[in-house]
Amino acid sequence: MIRFILGKILWLIPTLVGITIVAFGFVRVLPGDPVLLMAGERGLTPERHAELTHQLGFDRPIWEQYFDFLWKVLHGNLGDSLVTHKPVLNEFLALFPATVELGLCAMVLAVAIGVPVGVMAAIKRGSWFDQATMTTALVGYSMPIFWWGLLLIILFSGILKWTPVSGRISLMYYFPNGSGFMIWDALMSGQKGALTSALSHLILPSVVLATIPLAVIARQTRSAMLEVLGEDYVRTARAKGMPPRRVIGIHALRNAMIPVITTIGLQVGMLMAGAILTETIFSWPGIGKWMVDSISRRDYPSVQGGLLMIAAIVMVVNLIVDLLYGLINPRIRHR
Amino acid sequence: MTIRSMLLAGAAAVLMTAGGAGAKTLVYCSEASPEGFDPAPYTSGTTFDASSHPVYDQLVEFKPGTTEIEPGLAESWDVSEDGLTYTFHLRQGVKFHSVDGFSPTRDFNADDVIFSFDRQGNKDNPYYEYAPGVSYEYYAGMDMPTIIKSIEKVDDYTVKFTLSEPNAPFLADMAMDFASIISKEYADKLAAEDRKADINNVPVGTGPFEFVAYQKDAVIRYKANPDYFKGKAPIDDLIFAITPDPAVRMQKLQAGECQIMPYPAPADLEALKSDPNITVGEQPGLNVAYFAYNTTQKPFDDPKVRKALNMSINKQAIIDAVFQGAGQVAKNPIPPTMWSYNDAIQDDPYDPEAAKKMLDEAGVKDLEMNIWAMPVQRPYMPNARRTAELMQADLAKVGVKANIVSYEWGEYLSKSKDPNRDGAVILGWTGDNGDPDNFLAVLLGCSAAESGANRAFWCDKDFDDLITKARQTSDMAERTKLYEQAQVVFKEQAPWDTIAHSTVFMPMSNKVTGYVMSPLGGHDFYGVDISE
Question: In its keyword annotation, does this UniProt entry include Transport (chain A) (predicted)?
């Protein structure tokens, strides 16, 4: 088992180096000059342009810039943003808790609803429940997130007034030096109403962000269950008179979970993509919105640093998923 | 941080922001995050709204709701006969704000003024590049390094600026955001503690509001400055709730989560105007969207051809379809809210028949041209692509075949400056300081034709003489006359088709009183009150 884990971790190293190249190259391949974008319509003289380009180090050979970036990364320095002039790592860490909080809530929601619905749909294959949930899942999967978010805001915040429109917590609460995880900070503050406020702000964005992963997970669980339910060992278990609950719970579900866990792991990457739109609609101060802004301003250090951090995190999550297989399936563990 | 200290901090924060019973809080749903809190290195209005407007003052200021100059940190000023020296007499007893880790030991004085400008122009000043990549683009863009010859401290409360040539717009420049006065004492303290970059994180100014905290991309908090030299603001707390999506801003305003918002989506205006709890402020923007021909190339070097093309484009249709009514047809290169706007000028009428005839007379046949459409939305132009499509259809009616081209924004800006550029460019401008020179010289002067900022590459001696003379004259009536004449020359020569001036809308709750819209496009909350 230890060799298995070590092997997986060693593989991360070349992958991470590859990611630094992609992250560094990506934003430079896009047309656009950060210096020109900074000046806008006002423009600047060619001399001033050359001076600024030199000041920012963009006139050096590309490989030199890359190795400089890599060297700094190895020393835990992602460089400074061209826009705010602050260290990229600090910017990332300030925004990251908001994305994690929202992502976790959405993921819990997607799994807690998606897996049971998928299992039920598989067991009652062809029933109205199966057909209704799978049609809904298809609709959810194809939902334009921006439109969906706005629709929910207009309905639940505008007309029904059940939930707040946007933000993370009511403006009357404010936790300087908090952890950035609003639920935790609200809980720790002990202020009356803070936790309720934080939770009520989380509902709509979580639902919106969970929509697509929920649909994917429900469909994947259903098809994995159907496959497993047709296996010989399930028939044997049934034939020897095992109660259906046990057959499904122990024999079928556990085996069906392997592809489902893969899907869940892959959805973490999808969540990052969904976060871009969800965060913009709900004024959620997270990584997704920040990345889009940085790309549109060609803020090279922020884009390459941010991409590197996100990729590293997604890889770690996938590593954990790989290790989870081992827990569920002994054959993988002992290979 | 322990739970106990966190509890204390939280409780303190609630006390601070709520300010006890009866504290008045105004929440502004702002459209984006500020890039920083030091206005000088930036050029965006969003950043100025969060930095120079609430926190800082300038030597002179714009009178609310106008582009007129009034005293700010300078109580009065003298201009020498030759227009080369400006002597500012500073206000006494003005206090800088206190923030965590800094309390001022002295009042505002001449040292602060000198430092605020010296750091932008003097490479040896420790704050010239206080963080990697910091540069003072506005200072450079307004030509300050050439205009200002020297700045001297006469005594603690008198500062003398010597210019290299007479420059009437200089006074208006001093009211701009980059000319904000920062505390030298605070800057020195930060430098001594090796945290100079904090001048961009925690601002210390003399303005109506003191900075309290910024949670990145979410909330900015300010409290009223009790010692403000014009008197404490009627509200106690000012909060910016950063809300990038306009439809969501509207929902927040309607739900009472904020009381005032900028930049509504044009499609939402009807709904906002019909909401009985909301008032929609409205004002023409200090901007222009234009269509600049390359006047150095055939056949666009002929004013008759340019005029004919102008007459073939239906501008009202663009206002209706692209601006959705939130704009007005432009006939002059400067907006109607600007002094010296020449309202006597007649716009070239939309007349495709006459245009066709004029083109024939000029010997233009089977003309094919490029229309450059910007890839981004700007305050003066909601959708350049759509505008270009309408123009394309209009031009087809007079027998001109137009192709639409576009580039990434940065590239668009630089390529459109190339004198060999093929085609006419859609672009625009938002005024900086309310001075006509800031439109006419920057966009249409001969030196701008050389640098390319004049996208028409139009250098007309009569026009350039008029605006140069106006810049060097300090008599307002005289300047007005000269600019009015310059607009006549512009109309005759038609280097551009002036497309539109957009309208700016500001929806706010009926509880908000005293909000004055600035023709310069910034958002100020001093003087605003809120009823319960």
Answer: yes
